[in-house]
Each structure stands twice: as structure tokens, then as C-alpha cells.
């Protein structure tokens, strides 16, 4: 939603300045790979159990029309805990959840293999970067009112 508002605002500003804004051609590839949701405060007490650690996760969505190779991409929090994707691909239109704890990696669930929580319960920032270090997306939260943040 925010991306749409930013584009709409830019289009209105360009039109007001007398600049032409090219429409997106029909059938053109649209979308992005982006942070979708952060569940930063797992339910119940923070016991440090595998179940509790795995209830803390970040979802990444590929809204493009093609698979994207995530090999070497990183997911980082503000304290610089880094998860690096091993050999991985995210199919078009699919979402993958990156859990904090341990488990068997699948196409829809990845595991950092940590024994301690990553995402702060009050505020933090998730950053997704390509293997070359280029920032793809960021998502921040600053509240204890909720346990999750839609990005």
C-alpha cells in the first residue's frame, strides 16, 4: 500500500510540474521481492524453546512474475544479527517465512538456527539485501501494542 501511495504521489507531483509519466505497458513484469510481515513477539512467555523461537519470524514475498534466486541474500535486524540465505529460490507469487529457531528448511519455511531471540519486542528494523549488498527493502516497528508488523 505504501509503495502505491509513493508512486501515486510522485505521479501527481510530476503531472503538476508538467512532466509526462509513462504508463506501465500491459503485460509488463510488475511487483517486487519485499518484506511482507514481521512477527516479532512470539505468543506466551519467552521461554527460549524451539517452538517459541520459531514463532518469531519474518515473511518475504515475491510479487513478480518470475522466480528470484535468494542465494547469498541477507536478512538483518538493527543489532546486526544476520541470516544469509543458502542456495535458495523464491517462486513467483510465493512467500517464505524466516524463523529465528531451528528446523528443516523448505521452500516456504527457512530457519536461522539460533538459540536466542532476534527481533526486539518493542522496536527493530528488518533489512533485506541482495548478495551484492544492495538494499531491497526495510521494515521498522516501534510499539509493544502489537506482536506483528505488516510491511
UniProtKB/TrEMBL annotation:
**Membrane-crossing residues?**
none
Enumerate the UniProt keywords alphabetically.
Signal
Q: Which SUPFAM superfamilies match?
A: Lamin A/C globular tail domain (SSF74853)
Q: Which residues form the LTD domain?
A: 21-145
State if Coiled coil is listed as a keyword: no
- One matching Pfam family: LTD
- Record's signal peptide: 1-28
- InterPro entries attached here? Lamin_tail_dom, Lamin_tail_dom_sf
Indicate what this protein is called per its UniProt record. Lamin tail domain-containing protein
Q: What is the lineage of its organism?
A: Bacteria, Bacillati, Actinomycetota, Actinomycetes, Kitasatosporales
Amino acid at each position: 500500500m505504501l509503495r502505491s501511495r509513493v508512486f501515486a504521489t510522485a505521479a501527481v507531483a510530476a503531472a503538476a510540474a508538467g512532466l509526462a509519466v509513462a504508463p506501465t505497458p500491459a503485460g509488463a513484469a510488475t511487483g517486487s521481492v519485499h518484506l511482507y510481515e514481521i512477527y516479532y513477539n512470539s505468543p506466551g512467555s519467552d521461554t527460549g524453546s524451539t517452538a517459541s523461537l520459531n514463532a518469531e519470524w519474518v515473511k518475504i514475498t515475491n510479487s513478480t512474475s518470475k522466480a528470484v534466486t535468494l542465494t547469498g541474500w541477507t536478512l538483518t535486524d538493527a543489532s546486526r544479527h544476520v541470516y544469509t540465505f543458502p542456495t535458495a529460490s523464491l517462486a513467483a507469487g510465493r512467500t517464505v517465512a524466516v524463523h529465528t529457531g531451528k528446523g528443516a528448511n523448505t521452500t516456504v519455511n527457512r530457519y536461522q538456527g539460533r538459540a536466542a531471540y532476534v527481533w526486539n519486542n518493542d522496536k527493530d528494523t528488518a533489512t533485506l539485501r541482495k548478495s551484492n549488498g544492495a538494499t531491497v527493502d526495510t521494515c521498522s516497528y516501534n510499539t509493544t501494542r502489537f506482536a506483528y508488523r505488516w510491511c
